[in-house]
Amino acid sequence: MKKRPFEGIKVLDFTMFGVGPFTVNYLAFYGAEVIKVESHARPDGCRTITPYKDNKPGLERSFYFAFSNPAKKYDITLNLNHPKGVELAKRLVAWADVVAESYVGQTMERWGLGYDELKKIKPDIIMFRTCMHGQTGPMARHPGYGNILTSLSGYNCIVGWPDRPPCGFQARAFTDFVAPLFGIVSLIAALDYRRRTGKGQCLDLSQHEAGMHPLAPLILDYTVNQREPSTSGNRLAYAAPHGVYRCRGDDRWCAIAVFTDEEWESFCKVIGDSAWAKDPKFATLLGRKQNEDELDRLVEEWTSKRSPEEVMSLMQPAGVAAGVVANAKDQAEDPQLKHYHSFHELDHPEMGRMSFYHGPGFRMSKTDYELAPPPLLGEYNDYVFTKILGIPDEEFVQLMEEEVIY
Amino acid sequence: MSVEQKAEGMLSPYRVLDLTNERGFLCAKLLGDLGADVIKIEKPGGDPARSIGPFYHDMPDPEKSLYWFAFNTSKRGITLDIETVDGREIFKRLVSSADIVIESFDPGYMDNLGLGYPVLSQVNPRVIMTSITGFGQEGPYRDYKAADLVVWALSGILYLYGDLDRAPLAPSFPLAYFFDALQAAIGTMVALYHRENTGEGQYVDASAQLALVWPTEPEPQGLWEQDRIILKRSGRSWLRAQSGVLIPVIYPCQDGSITFFPFLGPTRVKANIAMGEWMESEGISTTFKEIDYSTLDWQNLRQDFIDEWTGDFARFFMTHTKKELLEGAAKRDIILYPVFTPKDMLEFPQLTARGYWVEVEHPELSASVTYPGAFLKTTGPPCRIWRRAPIIGEHNVEVYVNELGLSPEELMTLKQSRVI
Questions:
Q1: What is this model's ipTM?
Q2: Shortest CA distance to B272 belongs to which of B234, B310, B230?
Q3: Domains of chain B, earliest start first
């Protein structure tokens, strides 16, 4: 079998919740060896996020934890609040190429595991640190969650109807899915740099700073033009119709987006010879924008007699952008997502088979990724401490009794 | 920028040819900010995406698109019409000394020009080619029209947001392709690492739909698979689908909205108590005192309890501004964030303290513009905006004459025939 890209790279992973594990996953998908450090005193907080499998609470039952860790990770339980725990962590640092952590800023320093200490143990270590606000500045030590970081990053102010306060991304941790993408690129770049130069470094990824980057044009609109963004429902300034239209069925919808004259003509052909479609006031984009309320009502009159699948399958072959507003069932059955094997089924010892697992958002012609069931808490204590660190069995047992390996 | 300066970046040895439109700009921007030598290739006359607003001082002009500025930093710019025979030949010469080619045309476009991966890999077996499209290069939707809103819809993310009494709601600023471009950047980096191991380049196929299923999180799919529950949008509240309870998350305050979520769990007990004390100290009586946070569990909360509890918050927040609430919360270790607009971001002390905002000179506008700066801080070679986005054909002479070895006369010929 061909060597996978990150085979031979060793990662000591102290990260928890979303961003950190999401980042480390990509190294594991492509062959890196990962030790995930937790403890019974402080398991990955994601393990206690609901929903649980079959609604039964348990550290091995959280959908979110499972979803966030679908990769081969040697999970250990190491108590860092015990001096011997820190000593063992340092021995693992000597083993590692990358140390990843996602505690609130400067937490690792409290255990004597800051970058300066790690460097003494391993001069070319790459330390990847990510938290809400970064390692420096007045908010560095302020805890937070992606669930509402969407507010500071500007995402919540751009989802809404003009006549209502913003809806935002509710309580979903949207930035948890933006920041790690920057983190993974940076971490691989750092690995490549180390391979070429032999030099390590400490990466400080503020989830706030990276997370807001895609909104840069809105930020420049403010810094240059002093304009604040506004919400426009599903409309877009330079397209019409551009919206989400009700279809036949219970809470069924189809998105339609018409930009060019050509697309408008095709759209009119698809909906047949409706008198309104020939109305000159809709013939131009400016006309459609001026009469957009009426246009949207008429479009919806047409879509509401059809299923979203029917609307999409009539529009797309005619060259009009239209798509089913997919709910969970649609996602599961979507032929394109099936083609790309978007959902992976993994068999977990406690949760059984579930299919909400994902690999990367791309496919490579010569390199495959590999998923693995999420690790159980402390599943690899024996392997990591006795095999990797070579601790004799008696000492291993004693460390457990002393609640160092705990 | 001089070659010496460029040598400081993590990715400085690598050259990237960036053929993307607005769907892919962000991909090579990341690589450029990390130090790669990115050459943005535009059509003669300029990339059509230069017509995307907003514009500098609201003046629509291909050299004043803030959208272009934002996502093409750290790139040099040349013009080239790859639809001409000469253009294709020159492109292949560029490919022979490039490490990475990134494109975001419709599937099949590059193949039809004779510039697909099979051809480019013959020109340069080490080259990595990355394609950014709505649905990918294969499958039944391959040729579907992939407007941002439509990709957002088909991925399953659109359905999850908005008010239940109206249509599901997409962001007013389209976001779908950023996920695609960022995933493409990851794939490109994995391929680069693989190449350094093996010497072989490869093809990376990034799909916006695929990239966007992941941020729908496990809940919709898991609840469907397990309970046949369809998770729906829930306005400004967090919906616990299994019990049906709604916990408000976004609240109005005096001058906008804030997000507050009374996070539970042992580490948050102190902050929740502090929140109650803060409210009490300002005369807002709460039911807080009777709550034992250490045992509270979202699974078992009833809606009438939640309504009474969060109703107290709602009253309290209306007595303050965003800024007062942020400062008061930070002091008490409470996790409360105002719904920031760009103005709030610029005034946020944390970002200023970290030097996040950078001034980028735009000599052609006789001005400097404030940008969000590095997405990463590091003790290693810096991640930064190395140069402002290129003006049209800015580096034609530098790239074609100085580096590729065309003569000035050849360049003139190609310019007049609108190849360059």
A1: 0.98
A2: B310
A3: 3-214+354-416 (3.40.50.10540), 233-348 (3.30.1540)
